[in-house]
Specification:
Length: 202
C-alpha cells in the first residue's frame, strides 16, 4: 500500500581535490544541506545550464542555514520539469502498518518550511517521468508499464514499471496523450510509456 510520495532532488556535488569517498562524506551526501555546515570547498553544478535550487545559477554555493540561502530555494525548475535529475520517493507499508506510515509521511511533510525546503510534495509537482518496462521484466496485457491515475485520470491503469531516467513530461502533456489515444480514465489508459511512438529515456 502506498502511503505517501514526495520528490527528492539530486544535485551534482563537486568537491575540489577530493581523493576518496569515505563513510563520513557519504553520510553527508545523504543527510542533506545541513550536513555541509562549515564547509566552503563544496559546490553544486547546473545540468544543461538549469539550476536545481533557484531560478538562475550563481556560483554553486550549497544553500544551508549558515549562509542565509535556504529561504531562496524554490526547486522551481524541478517542479516545471526543466531540471531532469530528480526522483519520486515512495513510502510502502503493509496494511497493518498503514497508520504508522501515514503518521510518518504527515510528519515529514509538516517539517517543510522556508528554512527546511528539503523536497517538493507530490501534490505540487506538475511533471512526471515516463514509465517503461525495465530490462528483464516481462509485462503482459494485465501487468504493463503505466504512468498511473495522476497522469491518465481516475480509473486508469495503476502506476507500474520503471521511471528512473524516464523522459520528463508535464502532467498536462501526459493527460493529452491519453485523451489522444482515447483511453483517459479507462483501465487501458497507461500514458506515454515505452509503448509511445517516441523515446521514453533522457
Amino acid at each position: 500500500m502506498r502511503s505517501a510520495k514526495s520528490v527528492w532532488m539530486v544535485a551534482l556535488l563537486v568537491e575540489p581535490f577530493a581523493t576518496q569517498l569515505n563513510a563520513q562524506s557519504l553520510q553527508a551526501n545523504i543527510a542533506g544541506s545541513t550536513a555541509y555546515a562549515g564547509t566552503s570547498n563544496i559546490k553544486y553544478l547546473s545540468v544543461n545550464e538549469v539550476d536545481p535550487f533557484y531560478a538562475t545559477y550563481d556560483d554553486g554555493t550549497i544553500p544551508q542555514s549558515g549562509n542565509g540561502l535556504l529561504p531562496n530555494v524554490t526547486f522551481a525548475h524541478v517542479a516545471d520539469g526543466s531540471y531532469p535529475i530528480w526522483n519520486q520517493e515512495r513510502l510502502v507499508s503493509s496494511p497493518a502498518s498503514a497508520g504508522v506510515a501515514a503518521t510518518f509521511a504527515s510528519y515529514t511533510q509538516s517539517q517543510l518550511s522556508a528554512t527546511r525546503p528539503d523536497f517538493i510534495p507530490d501534490s505540487q509537482l506538475n511533471v512526471f517521468h515516463m514509465h517503461f518496462a525495465p530490462v528483464g521484466v516481462n509485462f503482459n496485457a494485465t501487468n504493463t508499464a503505466a504512468d498511473g491515475p495522476k497522469v491518465c485520470g481516475a480509473g486508469s491503469a495503476t502506476e507500474d514499471g520503471g521511471e528512473l531516467g524516464g523522459l520528463v513530461l508535464s502532467l498536462q502533456a501526459g493527460a493529452d496523450y491519453c485523451i489522444m489515444k482515447g483511453n483517459y480514465g479507462t483501465a487501458t489508459g497507461t500514458g506515454p510509456t515505452n509503448t509511445a511512438s517516441f523515446g521514453v529515456h533522457q
